[in-house]
Amino acid sequence: MSKAWEDKAKGNWNIAKGKIKQKWGELTDDDLDYVEGKEDELVGRIQKRTGETKEKVNEYLNDLIN
Fold it and tell me: Band of the pLDDT at 10, cuts 50, 70, 90?
C-alpha cells in the first residue's frame, strides 16, 4: 500500500470506507476497521472477504486518492 494512500486513509477514512463498501458490498464495518500501522492487515481482510488479489486491492485503494 502506498504512503499516499495511508495518509489519505488517516484523514478521510469514513469517505474511503464508503467507497470501498460500494465496490465490495460484502464487506462489513468490522472488515474495514482501520488501525494505523496495520494497513497490510486491512488489505488481507479485504482479500479474504472478496477473493481479490493483493495487487487488485492495493490498486483500487491507491486509485481512491486520485
Answer: low
Residue for grid cell 479485504: 46
The grid coordinates of residue 19 equal 467507497
Q: Read off the pTM.
A: 0.75
Copy the grid coordinates of residue 42. 486491512
Fold classified for 3-63: Protein Yjbj; Chain: A; (1.10.1470)
Phi, psi of 36 (to 5 degrees): -55, 135
The C-alpha cell that represents 50 in the structure block = 472478496
| Phi and psi based region of residue 37 (left: phi greater than 0; alpha: psi -120 to 50; beta: remaining) | left
7 pLDDT above the threshold of 70 = no
